[in-house]
Design brief:
Number of strands: 0
Strand content: under 5%
Distance between the termini: 27 Å
CATH architecture of the largest domain: Orthogonal Bundle
């Protein structure tokens, strides 16, 4: 992991830590499920333009929220899911805020988020890492593909199972930069259909490359 980070950091430079607001990150991540970043961003912008507060989103007619987030896809599922999460937070905390998670130990904060309907390992990990600065390691399609090819996780490991395995491997101080480095590498070099192995700085560390090029 240290060598992977060293090489990728030399390729892609430093990533600046810019914490996001936890509740906004949670809603944004739910919108991102099973869609691309562009569609997610359009839907999130439409939601913010239509409703001035998260309380307004929570209390709006379900049909209106569904229409606002339609560009994200699966709106009939995501709309009620978002409103359900907002109602649950209000019921349990008395207000619409996730700031209380800042004061929780990592495992407790993760368990609280994962207990919300529609919040799986990846969604919880994104909020924990990007909003709370906790050492979760979200596993998206790029992370999953690159770490499988490198042999950092066993073959056929699911995305869900990969979260715990990678969190155990990644040094706490590298969680944020390594997450972004691997995503960038997956997008630009270690692509799904045609990986650019000839341009890969991790070539000699990669189990997949060694298997495919063995005599």
């Amino acid at each position: 992991m240290l060598e992977v980070h060293k090489r990728l950091a030399e390729c892609y430079g430093a990533f600046v830590v810019s914490p996001s607001e936890p509740l906004a990150e949670l809603v944004n991540t739910i919108l991102s499920q099973n869609t691309n970043d562009r569609n997610r961003d359009v839907a999130f912008a439409r939601l913010l333009a239509r409703y001035p507060t998260w309380e307004a989103v929570r209390d709006a007619p379900a049909e209106e929220v569904i229409e606002a987030i339609r560009p994200a896809g699966l709106a009939p599922s995501k709309g009620p899911r978002i409103q359900g999460v907002l109602r649950r937070i209000t019921a349990e905390r008395g207000e619409l805020s996730l700031d209380f998670l800042h004061d929780m130990p990592f495992e407790e904060a993760r368990a609280w988020l994962r207990d919300l309907d529609g919040v799986g390992p990846k969604t919880a990990a994104i909020v924990l890492l990007f909003s709370l600065g906790l050492p979760a390691f979200p596993v998206d399609t790029h992370i999953h593909r690159v770490t499988l090819r490198l042999g950092l996780i066993p073959p056929k490991t699911s995305r869900e199972a990969a979260h715990d395995l990678l969190e155990a491997l990644v040094p706490v101080e590298l969680t944020y930069p390594l997450h972004l480095e691997i995503i960038q590498h997956g997008r630009s070099v270690c692509q799904a259909r045609r990986p650019r192995c000839e341009a890969c700085v991790l070539q000699d560390l990669c189990d997949d490359f060694k298997a495919r090029t063995a005599p």
